[in-house]
Structures are given as structure tokens and as C-alpha cells.
Amino acid sequence: MKNSKQTVLITGGGSGIGLAIAKKFLENDNTVIITGRNLSKLEEVKTDLPQINIFQSDVTKDEDVKSLVNQLEKEFGGIDVLVNNAGIMNLLDTGNESNDLKKQFDEIEINYNSPIRMLHYFLPQLKKSKNAVLVNVSSGLAYVPFAQSPVYSGTKVAVHFWTQAIRPQLKPHNIKVIELLPPVVDTHLAEEADLTDDSLKPMPTEKLAAIFWKKYSEGKEEITPGISKYLKLGSRLAPKLAFNQLNKEPIPKK
Ligand SMILES: NC(=O)c1ccc[n+]([C@@H]2O[C@H](COP(=O)([O-])OP(=O)(O)OC[C@H]3O[C@@H](n4cnc5c(N)ncnc54)[C@H](OP(=O)(O)O)[C@@H]3O)[C@@H](O)[C@H]2O)c1
Q: Domain tally for the chain?
């Protein structure tokens, strides 16, 4: 699997998992572009990593994504690798009628509709590349849902199924499709979750990125670091047990 001298776009690459993966691509002689909504966050990253390219771009906005496609075509002649990483997780008690419905739909828009949008608009550039790769970042929760974040769990299983379905469709176009299903990782997103089980101790982002890099370089299609591989196994062998183990506290405290 070619893992150097490629042009790589990582959505939500200004923090957490996306940034850790961006560093791996940079260390291995790739041109790396990261996006996010918050420009000052991206500028801070650029101060630490001057060789990185930053673009303020919201994955939920068609006009932002179309403009990014044009800018990257002009400045880099297109991309070879698209990493759909941007995502959010809301904790939610569905039994509470005062929940914000828009917030729940926004979560679907960012986590599920946007990877579809990104691929749609970047498809011509990926088709042009000799070594095109699509990486979708879903979650170990695609195997076993986490009750405290019900909409999030739904979006991640949707990304998981979508990824599996498009893999054979993109094969004739020489676009390799890889899915990263992270366990709990030590990022802003995971901070708020009320995780009681010791086995759910967050993995450091550097460790996650190192596992990703090794498996990516080997061309592995489904990358399941840490607890994710056990969630996969548990979901097949004893789904109820796996669900109960993960969901001792189904209602978020906050
Ligand atoms: N941490 C975990 O335990 C864990 C486990 C499994 C899967 N994941 C997945 O890993 C991915 C990365 O999450 P993370 O844990 O690294 O969290 P994070 O540090 O909060 O990173 C998420 C990134 O997404 C960006 N983002 C959010 N909405 C966006 C939008 N509309 N347009 C563009 N960028 C947007 C954020 O930047 P701005 O706010 O500046 O836009 C942020 O940089 C997500 O898909 C998440 O679901 C995380």
C-alpha cells in the first residue's frame, strides 16, 4: 500500500484522532491538508507543524465542500487520500421530551451525511489518482451501541454499513476503501462520556495513530484497535452480553 508522496485530506484534522493521523502522514513524506470549522484552532496546529496545509471548511456545507474541491484542484492538482474523520458525539436521554431535536439531526448531518457529501464531491479527484484511498472513521460503537449516545451510535453503524456497501462499487475505479473503528480515545469528544467500565479506559491518540498507520500501510480494510476488536467479536458471539457490559449506565448523568 503506497503510504508516501500522496496528497491527503483529513476532515476535522485540527484535533484528536484526525490530528494524530495527520502527523503520521506528515512524518511519512505526504502532503497533508486538514480542515475544520474553527480557523484559530487550525492556525495553532500550523504554528506547531508549518508544513501542514489548513483550510477552514465545514463538512455539512455544500458550498464549503465545493469550494474546497476547487482550491485543492488548483493548489495540489487534487487529492489521493480522503479521510472522513470529522465527527461529534452528543450524550442524550431519549426519555426527556425537552431534548433539542435540531442538535440530534445536526449530529446525523455531520457524522453520516457529510462523509457521503465529501466522497460525492471529491470522487472526480479520487478517480484521477493512481493510488486513491477513502478512509472512513466510524467507531467500535458500530458493533455495539452505546446507550448514552443513541443518535451517535446510529450514525456510526450507518457509516459502517455504507463503507462496506461502497467498497466493491469503488473497486472498479481503483479506490481502496478503509474503515477505522476506534475504541475510546483520549480526545475532546470522549471527555464527556460517563464511562464506568475500566476496559473502556481511553487510548492515547498517539497509540491509536500508530496502530492505524501499521494496518493502513499493510492495506487492512477494517482497522479495529483495542477494545473495538472485542466489541466486534462480542457483537457476533454474545450480543446481549456485550450490550449489557457496555451499558451499565444507559442514561448520561449530565
Ligand atoms: N474519541 C473517541 O473515543 C472516538 C471513538 C470512536 C470514534 N471516534 C471518531 O473519531 C473522529 C474524530 O473524533 P475525535 O475523538 O478526534 O474528536 P475531536 O478531537 O473533537 O475531533 C473532531 C474534529 O472534527 C471537527 N469537526 C466537527 N464538526 C465539523 C464540521 N461540521 N466540519 C468540519 N470539521 C468538523 C472538529 O473541529 P471544529 O470544531 O473546528 O470544526 C474537530 O477537530 C470522529 O468521527 C469520532 O466519531 C472517536
A: 1
> And the C-alpha cell for 11?
476532515
Tell me the pLDDT tens digit for each residue of 91-145.
999 999 999 999 999 999 999 999 999 999 999 999 999 999 999 999 999 999 9
* Residue 227 resides in a domain: yes
pLDDT at 83 over 80: yes
What gap in Å lies between CA 181 and CA 206, rounded to an integer? 15
Q: Is residue 163 part of a domain?
A: yes
Given the residues 143, 152, 216, 230, the one annotated as active site: 152
How far is ligand 1, taken at its centre, from the CA of residue 123, in Å? Answer: 22
Would you say residue 254 lies in a domain?
no
Q: What is the pTM of this model?
A: 0.98
| Annotation says 121 is catalytic | no
Give the domain extent around 67: 7-246
Query: Strands 175-180 and 222-223, how do they pair?
Result: parallel
